[in-house]
Design goal:
alpha+beta, four-stranded antiparallel β-sheet, three-stranded antiparallel β-sheet, 15 helices, 13 strands
Length: 390
């Protein structure tokens, strides 16, 4: 947690506000509006004071920062364990790091530093140093290494610098510039997103085009910031691809990647986040069954899931008949009579009556009243005729 007392850099004698980072984008912008800061001057946030869990960031006081950079940095720090936080603060003190760009890049390069706070155990010191430099080690190899000698050699190297956070050693590894000062690196801050989008401007001729990542569902403020970072005016200026999901199949993601209405995909994600895994499978089956083409149509279907009956994982009438007779609970079934039951015929009769079909997800049919289904079909047709890019 980082608490920043901020003022408008253009009027430092005015009143201040306190923002606790990390914070969601909508809340941050609402609070910043109190000191007349918007996306157009968000880099003019003057830091009057820093408090909270990362005292080393007091280096930022009495200077202007970009609030989006502070929020990204705070999200990175929020994932640190105690040792990582100690290394982060120790490196700041050792190197005198004081710019947001360098601080963000430091969070991706903590392996370049080892901090010693307890000198009583040379083996632990050597082990930490080795793991810092090698970013992990197989247990079989750990047993063969002489960590006590490594710890002794580190302490006698003369490279250590005393800081308020311990004695800090630089491991002399290449420092990777992950953040270029403009486009934030991909970072999965939350693990409960429905869909991850990779976005870039249309028509980019660069071999390494600038990219922004969104984790849906998200706020409108977050989407607008993505547009701003890419220098785009509308969604139509962007191309995007669904690159990951915590709950959707790859085929469904590929289907969504063909669409161009990001706002509606975000709305669809808001609905999906409250569905359980079985309901998500059902939604994918319903979309396949109805041949829905747009995110708007999918939203209508997601809100009408109760109008459909779905059995996952079956692909023919014999399996469907068997499911309905044995597993559905509609009948009292005696397994000794199995050889006398025509599961296929029963499945065919139900299929004919229900007008259902088999999809790659399983069996699906409509169960709502004719009025409900007609209303749904009319709504889908209306959406198809009126849908357009935002």
């Amino acid at each position: 947690m980082i608490i920043a007392e901020l003022k408008n850099g253009a009027n430092r004698d005015s009143y201040s506000i306190d923002i606790t980072f990390p914070v969601d984008e909508e809340s941050m912008m609402e609070q910043l509006s109190g000191i007349n800061i918007s996306d157009s001057n968000i880099e003019d946030c003057y830091v009057a004071k820093i408090s909270g869990d990362v005292p080393a960031l007091c280096e930022l006081e009495n200077d202007c920062i970009h609030a989006d950079e502070m929020n990204y940095l705070a999200r990175r720090i929020d994932s640190f364990d105690n040792y990582e936080l100690t290394k982060f603060q120790g490196a700041i003190a050792r190197e005198g790091i004081c710019t947001m760009k360098d601080l963000i890049n430091l969070t991706f390069n903590l392996h370049n530093y080892t901090v010693v706070t307890d000198f009583s155990n040379l083996k632990n010191i050597g082990s930490n140093h080795y793991l810092d430099k090698n970013i992990g080690c197989p247990a079989s190899e750990m047993e063969r290494l002489d960590f006590e000698t490594m710890g002794r050699n580190l302490l006698s190297s003369g490279d250590g610098k005393v800081t308020p956070y311990g004695v800090v050693f630089c491991n002399s590894l290449p420092m990777e510039e992950v953040y270029n000062g403009k486009m934030f690196p991909d970072y999965d801050y939350t693990s409960d997103y429905v869909l991850k989008l990779e976005m870039m401007r249309k028509g980019s001729q660069s071999t390494s085009p600038e990219k922004v990542w969104l984790y849906l569902p998200t706020s409108k403020a977050c989407i607008l910031k993505a547009l701003l970072h890419l220098g785009a005016d509308t969604y139509n200026d962007l191309t995007f691809q669904c690159v990951d999901s915590m709950s959707l199949s790859e085929s469904f993601m590929d289907h969504l990647s063909l669409m161009d209405n990001m706002g509606e995909i975000n709305e669809l994600s808001k609905i999906i986040q409250f569905l359980d895994p079985e309901e998500i499978k059902k939604l994918e089956a319903v979309i396949d069954y109805t041949q829905a083409k747009t995110a708007g149509e999918m939203i209508e279907l997601a809100n009408k899931l109760d109008s459909f009956f779905f059995v996952a994982g079956i692909s023919n009438v014999e399996q469907y008949g068997r499911h309905m007779i044995i597993e559905s609970g509609h009948f009292k079934y005696d397994s000794e009579l199995e050889s006398y039951v025509d599961f296929e015929k029963y499945g065919q009769d139900r299929l004919k009556h229900e007008k259902g079909c088999f999809t790659s997800y399983g069996y699906i049919c409509c169960t709502g009243s004719m009025e409900e289904i007609c209303d749904l079909n009319d709504q889908l047709e209306e959406n198809t005729q009126t849908m357009g890019g935002i």
